[in-house]
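Cross-posted from the bioinformatics board.
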Amino acid sequence: MITENLIQSFQAICGIENVEYSNAARLAYSYDATANFQALPDLVLAPRNRDEVAAIVKMCAEHHIPIVPRGSGTNLSAGTSPSSGGVVLLFKNMNQILELDQENLTVTVQPGVITKTLIDYVEGLDLFYPPDPSSLKISTIGGNISENSGGLRGLKYGVTKDYVLGLEAVLPNGDIIRTGGKLAKDVAGYDLTSLLVGSEGTLAVITEATLKLIPKPPFKETILAMFQTLEEAAEAVSAILAARIIPTTLEFMDQGTVQVIEDYKQIGLPTHCEAVLLIEQDGPLESVEKDMDKMYQICSEHGAIELRKAESDEEAEDLRSARREALSALAKLRPTTILEDATVPRSNIAPMVREIIRIAAKYNVTIRTFGHAGDGNLHPTCLTDLRDKEEMERVEQAFEEIFHASIELGGTITGEHGVGEMKAPYLEWKIGEAGIQVMKAIKQGIDPMNIMNPGKMFAKSTKERLVMSNV
Amino acid sequence: MITENLIQSFQAICGIENVEYSNAARLAYSYDATANFQALPDLVLAPRNRDEVAAIVKMCAEHHIPIVPRGSGTNLSAGTSPSSGGVVLLFKNMNQILELDQENLTVTVQPGVITKTLIDYVEGLDLFYPPDPSSLKISTIGGNISENSGGLRGLKYGVTKDYVLGLEAVLPNGDIIRTGGKLAKDVAGYDLTSLLVGSEGTLAVITEATLKLIPKPPFKETILAMFQTLEEAAEAVSAILAARIIPTTLEFMDQGTVQVIEDYKQIGLPTHCEAVLLIEQDGPLESVEKDMDKMYQICSEHGAIELRKAESDEEAEDLRSARREALSALAKLRPTTILEDATVPRSNIAPMVREIIRIAAKYNVTIRTFGHAGDGNLHPTCLTDLRDKEEMERVEQAFEEIFHASIELGGTITGEHGVGEMKAPYLEWKIGEAGIQVMKAIKQGIDPMNIMNPGKMFAKSTKERLVMSNV
């Protein structure tokens, strides 16, 4: 499909050193962080600037070659698996922070900038870029934008889309668009910025982004609250929000997760209670102290059996990083880890966690749950083994039932990981047939040849909705 | 075009009393708040629920009848002028607040709810819905969503789109979609919620919205700062933001505007200085006081010749309402008022205001400027007389040059009023030909018969870009 001639053309565009097609290179980019999805690309290209991206896209359009834009491949929905072969686009040569505008509080970056690099850079200037996916040490801003990544601070500060003010992108025909700008308000036409954010590389290749920054909150405090029962923890969450407090972070870990983290990190986490909440608040000192006192009290009143306040930045960082490394810790237990992100209105966290426990037992699979209690974004994580076909079948059935439960509870099939290839068959459960038709109309209009990340979001066939009475 | 038969069909759908076609009714809905745009609709319909909306849309689709969804018609871009005739859809029978969810901090409303009704309702429960367009006493939430309305609190709290969590809408084929939900995080498919927000009725009819609420800030303070020169005021704005303070409101009024408001309201506003800033901060008492002290000091250091702190809620309300009624006050001066919303990065406010003054002098037209300094959203307002053709030509040339200047300064042709019919010929200046093509692909895909608010956003022809060297 990709001829020697074409390879030479790509080499002429972005330099011989930025065109890879060895078996090793193709293998390296044949999968992302999602278990059980793998396909070989034909070529791996690393353009150096927007014009090279545009030239590559034009060439691909001319020859009907699929394009898979890829950040660091940390996504968990098989969003960057090259399922139709073609070209994987890397942004390692487009990883510069281009401009920090102190007057307008914006930063303009290339897509390949590592999330943590950006966060550290702006914090050094007393500014704040809130979206903090757990993969932030590895993930790129381009990937975050394509997936509309969330994170631990989403409850108070929102997600990636809330910080993207403008984009430059290459359309599937090679044209370049610029959306938005350094503007707090802009209603000139459809909101193409928001359309591209979270479109998982299916509509355009993002080549530059202007992001909104906010002042860095001066103080932050952290507490850990342990509860005998799930319900008590969930009630504490509701009570905190009912008290009109929006904490920065309100993270939930179930017993199984805490146990595994403690085994892995040994930082003295309690392993004897059914649920643990990690609570953080930031802002001006007085408000933080007031809120934390109130939340401390609320947790006590709702049956917290132990409350631990981080007495130093170091201790707080230990607690936070414990949560952040939940996935790594869990991944040590079995050969294969499947991390999901079923999300419900936060009032339904307790019923959802109970459902997950019930479903795991029903299918006899191991599922641990942690996640963002404040925004209802849970991460049921299955520890399994890909090589065991029979078990994998049960795992799939269990997740299908979990997605079903989250929809029934007013939720969604994915809160922050994206649809990708993995959840495409379930998308209609959330957005309905009419929603799928609208998405198809948009996709068809913008990418009529379907060269942009084909096979993602749009499923060949939709899974039948489960019919159950027990949810 | 609309036969007696069809009228009976519409009557059968939504009741005889909700179908109007007298000359008086048609005339009443032949224009909105935008000067110089008028066209008669054929019918005015007021459906009572979503299913009636869907039946009407299906009937219109079958007979290729244009549909113009209309809130209260307060928009300033000729977004609801029935330029192709057809049906005007009113939401006076769909004006209920359906549910307030205290646990998830959401409110679900029908499109016809008046903005202020909603704001007052939630504030009574100690909650807060921040978007506050100046028309909030009359405008509807449906209209706010269709236009993505801004307001005075946009700098700190964002605009309408930041508060829309989910929508129910009727597509041009009569299908119903539901987007989003009571979810802080949801990445299931393209962001259709954001696509519909600000789409000005060109893609679907919104029939229900779930909105995000936040806790009501407990305290608020207001000051008025007067500056001898525009530059000093603009420098004070920059210095405030550089000090990492994001005030709730940072409003700007030029001398001409203040003079007119004072003549109209007589609340003792200063009329001897070139620029006035209205500054407000809300939040916990300690932070508000700290921020206000700092801003007071910054204004002094940047040459404020007078600083007035509101000593009571009443006085603060006077200052705020003065700003809010700028338009009404200005409208008294001449028969016709044309209010624009050229928007620039906030670092370019002073150059932009200077440009507006220069352009007004060049074309010998009267323009007063006020607006949202904190987010660069200015409202140059022309006082003129529609009946004077020669003057109107100069007015049009002046605005053309103002749009040009705002684009050259990194801005946009519309910050919060929308494109409508009025600014459609200028849209390409902001989003480029490729942007227009993407919008057309979306419109064509979703509304292939172009029955949804035709003639809006998409221009028959684009204005030639001005070529100038003086900006």
